[in-house]
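Please decode residue identities from the backbone states below.
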């Protein structure tokens, strides 16, 4: 049985969708508050362990919807996990700290928040951090 597309004329739904500009991932992410978990990477770092930290956070937030874990990047001696809170910062930061402690990496981690559409980063863990955060 053939599908009758005559009511749609010469254009298809795909053509109409292509005409609408979609925001880039960067644009979408810049319009949201963001939490970044940064862990150091050295020659002796176990990449699988770093991925397990990310997987733990994905599972934690898939159960309560306080945030969405949006992946990671790695480079220049750093492993960054990107998290987008869906509400207030407090419960998200508390859960991230608890799960990093569970994985045994809280003492090595930097937890940083970035307000939407801002290039300013604020280190929230460790408390009293005096260094400079760089992505």
């Amino acid at each position: 049985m053939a599908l009758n597309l005559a009511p749609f004329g010469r254009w298809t739904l795909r053509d109409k969708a292509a005409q609408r500009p979609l925001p880039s991932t960067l644009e979408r992410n810049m319009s949201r508050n963001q939490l970044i978990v940064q862990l150091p990477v050295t020659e002796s770092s176990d990449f699988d362990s770093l991925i397990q930290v990310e997987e733990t956070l994905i599972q934690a937030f898939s159960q309560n919807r306080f945030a969405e874990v949006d992946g990671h990047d790695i480079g220049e001696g750093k492993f960054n996990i990107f998290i987008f809170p869906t509400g207030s910062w407090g419960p998200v930061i508390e859960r991230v700290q608890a799960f990093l402690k569970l994985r045994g990496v809280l003492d090595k981690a930097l937890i940083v928040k970035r307000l939407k559409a801002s290039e300013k980063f604020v280190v929230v863990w460790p408390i009293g951090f005096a260094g400079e955060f760089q992505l």
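Observation: The domain at 24-118 is CATH 3.30.70.600 (Alpha-Beta Plaits).
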